[in-house]
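[job 0412] stage=fold_complex status=start
inputs:
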Amino acid sequence: MTVEILLFMAVGVVTIVTAAMMLLSQNAVHSALFLIVNFIGVAFLYLMLEAPFLAMVQIAVYAGAIMVLFLFVIMLLGAEKTGAGANLRRFPWLAPVAVTLAVSFIISVGAALTQGQIDAQAPEARDAQVRFVHAAPIAMSESVEGGLPANRTFVLRVNDEVIDESFVFGDETEFVEVAPGLVNIGLRATADGQDLVTTTLELTANSVQTAVLAGEEAISFYSVAQPDTAGLTVFNAYPALPALAFGDLKGELFDDARRILPVGADEVAFGTASAPLQYPADFPNWVAYAPGSIEDVSRITDAAELRDVVVRISEFLPEMRYNEDALVVIGTERRPDGSLRPTATRLDAASLEPFGSVRTIGGMLFIDYLLPFQLVAMLLLAAMVGVIVITYRGEHVPKPSRATRRKVARPLTSVIASQTGSDLAEDDAPKLPEKTEPVAGD
Amino acid sequence: MENLALLAPLIILLPSVGAFINFVWGPKLDERMSAIIGTVASGSTFFVALGFLSYLTGNYFEPAIIDPPLLDGWIRIGSVNLDIPWQQRIDTLSVTMCLFVTFVGTFIHLYAAGYMHGDKRFSRFFAYLNMFLAFMLILITGNNLLMMFVGWEGVGVCSYLLIGFWWDKSKGEGIKNANAARKAFIANRVGDFGVLMAIFLCFWTFGTLDFFKATEVVNPSHVAHLAEGGHGEEHGSETEEHGAEEGGEHGGEAEGESLAAQTVALASDTTIEEGETTGGGEGDGHGAATEGDAHGEGEAHAAEGEAHSGPTYLDNSHLTFSQLGMFGQAEKLMKLKDGETLDRGDGTQVGRTFTVGGVTMDIGTIVSLIALFMLLGAAGKSAQIPLFVWLPDAMAGPTPVSALIHAATMVTAGVYMMVRSNTFFYFSPEVSLFVTIIGGVTALLAGFMALGQWDIKRVLAYSTVSQLGFMVAAVGIGAYAAAMFHMITHAFFKALLFLGSGSVIHGMEHGHHHLHDHGHAKGGHGHDDKHGAHDSHGHDAHAHKADAHGHDDKHDDHGHDDHFDPQDMRTMGGLWRRMPITFVTYVIGAAALAGLWPLAGFWSKDEILADSWVAGVFDGKLSGYIALALLLVSAFLTAFYMTRQVWMVFFGEPRHEAAKHVPESVWQMTVPLIVLAVFSVFIGFINIPTDSGLAAIGFDFIFGEHLLTDWLEYSVLHAHVGIFRLEIAAIATALGFAAIFLGIRVYGGNRALTPDGRDPLQANAATRPFWSLANARMYWDEAYNLLFIRPFQAIAKFVAEVIDWKFWHDYVHDDVIGKGFNGAAKLLSKPVDQGVVDGSVRGVGRLVKWFSGVLRRSQTGYVRVYAVALLVGVVAVVVLMLLPLVQS
Amino acid sequence: MVPTEAFVILSMVLFAMGTLGVLLRRNAIIVFMSVELMLNSANLALVAFSRQWQNADGQLFTFFVMTVAAAEVAVGLAIMVAIFRTKQSINIDELHLMEG
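[job 0412] stage=fold_complex status=done
writing structure:
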């Protein structure tokens, strides 16, 4: 019995009790209030069922709007006390039949649940999500095209299923969902059919991974898990850099005091990722560099030369929204002379949203289910119009005798009676002296 | 500028849009807007036609076939291999037609803006004119017989609508107009039968209705020759010319061997053929006469052609038989010998014999039949014997209509069709002879009938018939280019004459109004104030506007004082002082028509006469002699009746009070007259013959010799260059002057009418029988009445009264069907209807009533009962769904 | 982790109580509230199964059910107000105008 189950039982008992009280109470206002508590309990159950958005809607719409409407109508009609108990006089067979039906319903469904084949013990595990990034420049072709080696294309397979037909250097795939467990990943050159990489990755259920193809001679996939917290995660996929440090580049070009100040983050080894970097709000000029060698960059006056030794990662920072996480891969690009230098790429593919989040529901509502959504909106509009039509009584033409009555002096019963169209309370209303001539400002 | 040919759909679309606007919004537009829309729609087509001209000259006269994508595959029925695309053909022939049709049409639109002023259906008139222009251009630019037929019928409908445009005139005039429209329509139906038969025969024989396919070259030898450098320079002397003509005619034989080197495969789906040159041409398809004969100019041409790397030309030898259009197929088939066969391209063979409608015929017979049926169609549309009777009556329409449709454009459609189909006529000499006779006799008889007419427009109508006879006769002798040339010149001067006569008629009406108002100004008529402006002889715009009191009234007889006919030449006379512009332009037009040197009519008429001389003397064709004899007499008659008309209308003393008060017309009417007059003078120079002496004084520098013929040779396969025969020209000119002289002797001075109102020829006892015959139009209408209309009416009456009424109505319907039905109904009503049918219906009703009485008890009206029922259903469904799960 | 079964059984019980309310109460407003209770129990089952299969469609459907219920409540209460105006009562046993 975990705390969760205890909580469920408590809430469940509350809902059942309040439902019963709603049925049994003689006063309709009490019934409505019990029902509100019942709805709030159901909303709590929604929270336990990974549906936070629905829980909020339940409270706002049901417990709020709808029940207020009920209460308003009950009070408007003065219908608190009407009819309690079953009308057994006219339908003596009704109560036994109703109870029989309810019980048979519970029994049949319960039997189906307990004796049936549905495994309703726990939710199904979600598939792992993984994306692949090609950041291994050595996997280029030997054939030379226009002075630069041409990119070799590969066929990327996961468990013998083709993910990408033409996987080239610099590519990034979308997230794919893969059944959890040991996963075979194969990379075969399109041109000569050579298997470049054949490896396995261990993917756990519900996890979100990024597999980066990196390395110079021993090329392999390195997997990075999606970080839990927001921030900038930097992955080192540049073989020439066994370790990568982060620093703040101070000063402008041609500035003698131009330096890189370390920012205190851990160094990142090749094939690993940093912890999410939290950055200050004043937009620092953060760079990644090989530690120990080039802290003094005052001698570098050429922007291109600067790019050869440091990688600006701060340029990705302003793009990041609040509470967002991002993954930047320090990869490779070619200098004009054909040699390599580090560069940074931010990965774009968005992982699937967690189940039941507002964004998921909103996306489905406005993309997949747009037509039903619009139909429901039309339904609400029609209901609104219908309500007005049903309750509209035409222009209220006061009788000549009433026109002389001073309205401010009318008691509440009379007001309700006039609104509901009945003259029931009229007899009880205090008689006012009738005036013979019409009031001027009336 | 090869893309200019892509404007082709526009040339139909623009007038269609104009017609649409004037149809739909016409009643809301004022006259000015309607006229501007109509005239601009027409004028813009002229500029489109100029675009075509630019395209052709820039593209070595290579035809383009434009296939508007929206109408791709216009009519396509796979089961019978019927595939008729909506293709427009931009070649020298169609562009020639387009140019003069749109040019003349535009000025007639402008003229109509003045002429129709005040008419209550003004915008409708312009809508019809635009619609006519659109259909005419479909007729001209269509690349298959069916499109041509669509235009053919469309212009027929517009003609019908416009002849009967004043169908609502009072006092029987309206009925007369409507009858004239109907006459034109029905006479044309007879001709349409011929066109339809020709279409069917063509489709049965050739399996296609396309004139030429997109990949096909019309006249390979000419294209080859052009690429080699220069053209038409080889006609130095008569003999050489003749040799060249022979070479041209047999160019088809040379095509296979000499031009094979230049064959380049083209993508068959491109509509405009263009390509890189494959080097200088070697095509000596013209035989020996062309070689070594090129002038310096020709060599310059050649150098230029190579420098510009002209288009690739093809000789069709790469095309299979079914890839050719119907003319190409006919050419190949006619050259087959008996028993020889050709491969169609799909493995099947085609020989000289075809089975058409169950009859097996030789290709020569079929081609002759097609030509004969086309002649029937042309006789209808181009008003030849025996179907010409509608054209004089068609003058009931407004004068711009007479000028546009019944003189310049529509009536030439028949000649255009024959020139377009010249292959068929070329290969059937007997039919060509018949064509010559029809044309020549028509020219002669119509010219004769024109002598006896009093109506100014009727004279011109017969003159039109006569001139169309010239063209048809030219087709008959094989002078296709000459026929086109005469068509063009005739379009200009005949439109000019019609517009001039309209101006005269308009003036006479004004004069009569003037007279009328003077006579009744004191009588207190309701519209006196309106016509006050006329006191100042106002023909300025303002006075003109004040006159706008319902045009139908204006064209009516005014009835209560006299039966004044503004078109009757007897009421005219001495008009040259009152309307000088009209007079000068009219005389120019008349002189052009009479064929006086150097006006347009001289060149075209002389070319026809010279060609018939060549056909008779050089080629020994009988048709040449016939044409020469008939046409020379016709030319004489032409000059004579035009002299008679000019004198009656413009000279002498005014013979009616109205003629003394005629104002000159407004500028909308005089400007077209002047423009057309200028063209009537100069248009003949587009095709001046060699050796005419003009080359010596530099005229060929302006236009070049045989410009039109050389130009037409790219689309008219059997066109050939005419020659100049001084003796023929001299005889024709002498005859013309003699006729004028004779005319002045008869009608000159003030002798146009004898004092008792008769024609001098009528007064003379010797000529009276002839004149009376001409005046009675040779009793054609009466003969038709007796021969066709009376028997037809008798048959119709018999069918209506005996067959339809007595037999069908009285006997079959009333007696057999009606009484039989009544008897059967009585028999069936009691046992079957009341017993079985009623009983079963009532039984069902009773059953339903009883059952509903039982069922209604279940509806208690209490909510909870319904809820329980619902819940029982829900539980039942749930149990049924879940039970299988529980059991397993 | 609470098993889905538990939620389904709870929803079933609530549904049965709702049906009893609909069948046995006379006050139309209470009947209406019972209907709402039934709808809620169905929603609960939907959401529970949605979590079971990790498929958000169930939640979406719950959303639509809520919207329809809102519309239904608005119209239903309006009808009740209209009935009350003419009959001065919303006791459903007094309403049997549609008796056959």
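[job 0412] summary: The mean pLDDT of chain A is 77.
[job 0412] exit 0
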